[in-house]
Amino acid sequence: MEPAWFKAGVEAALLAPTGLNRQSFTLTYTNGRVLAKAGLGPNTKIDLGIVKYHFEVGAGKENFRWK
After folding, report:
1. Res. 26: pLDDT tops 90
2. 11-35 burial, b if ≥16 CB within 10 A, otherwise e?
3. Residues β-bridged to residue 37
4. What average pLDDT does this structure show over 23-52?
5. Arithmetic mean of pLDDT, 5-19
6. Can you tell me the distance from the alpha carbon of 17 to that of 41, in angstroms, rounded to the nearest whole number?
């Protein structure tokens, strides 16, 4: 089960603006680490940076480490 901070981070990430208004990414939690993956399509790597920032704001950067 994911901790509350992870859920808060995901909610913040889902509200993040993206280049084409698509949410082409996945966020996975494992043992205090979060893996963020870009989906397929144009601008997805740029969008992933935006999503990761919003996730950090929502989750609290002190609560996890990126994988």
Report:
1. yes
2. ebbeebebeeeeebbebebeeeebe
3. 26
4. 95
5. 95
6. 16
Whether residue 22 has pLDDT greater than 90: no
- Cα–Cα distance between 1 and 42 in angstroms, integer? 33
Return the CATH number of the domain spanning residue range 4-66.
3.40.109.30
Tokens found for residue 57: 């704001």
For the chain, domain boundaries: 4-66
Q: Please state the φ and ψ torsions of residue 41, each to the nearest 5 degrees.
A: 125, 175
47 — phi, psi (to 5°)?
-60, -35
Give the pLDDT confidence score for residue 21 in this predicted structure. 84
